[in-house]
Amino acid sequence: MPATIAFIGLGAMGAPMAANLLDAGFTVRAFNRSPGKAKPLADKGATVCASVAQAVTGADFVVSIVADDEATRQVMLGADGVVANAAPGTVIIDSSTNTPTMVREVAEAARARGIEHLDAPVSGSVPQSRNRELVFMVGGEAGTLEKAKPVLAAMGKMQVHCGGSGAGATIKLVNNMLSGSLNAALAEALSVAIAAGVDPEAAQQVLNEGAAGSRLTRNKIPKILSRDFTPQFQIGLMEKDLRYFLALAQQVDRPAPITSLVRSQFQAARRAGLGSLDVSGVYLQASGEIAQKGDAGVPAGKAG
Hints:
The protein is an alpha/beta fold. The protein has helices at 14-23, 39-44, 52-56, 69-77, 82-85, 100-112, 126-130, 142-153, 167-195, 200-209, 215-226, 235-251, 257-274, 282-287; strands spanning 4-8, 27-31, 47-48, 61-64, 91-94, 116-119, 122-123, 134-139, 156-163. Helices cover 51% and strands 13% of the residues.
């Protein structure tokens, strides 16, 4: 009999992850604060639940991917939450990007009730989520990860055990610090190149084949050049992750001057009304185009 999975959080990442679990033959009980987002999953055979408590009833695994520490605290530790309502022996797989401190608090509360916990944030955005190409960075007990591997394999291409509780969350913040910094650097570089009269398509070719060429440049340069800032990962979420990284750096007494500058750029973009755009939209901040933005935070005629 297939395992039953409670899936919490059906946003841009969560919805395709849950759909992949259904396609792999798992029974899925889904909850999302906005019920309308659950309809496509219901059409595929998921049971849509009215609360977290209802979703986790009878579940073997709980997969959660929500916005931040505050949302995780509510979902995991609230009276209607996972820890209070899941049965002993349930395995929690939390793919949210949280602080390591939040992760360890939830893991300790779960352990006290006989529930197993993994922090398992992901590398990848919407295309990787849809195509089962996510890489899971996992913190927690190796034995728990072994139990969870079939579930993770249905959503991604790789699981990397990073260490004990909080290790997955830690390396995720490191990963996003690098991604955010590269996005900000790319925005600044293209802004200067285009202002100096370099042909945009030539710039794209050279930068993709140069030393800094990567999946990020190949994905984000076309979005910038076409002004298609449809979100794969939102500016507001990246700014939050950079803030979490700075808090972590402070906890371990390490300087983080680059991250401070990058976070200020994303913070300015968010405060300018661009928070719901893709991270590549930080280009609008770097280039000064936000001064001409329309109601949606995108230059008039350039809706993304």
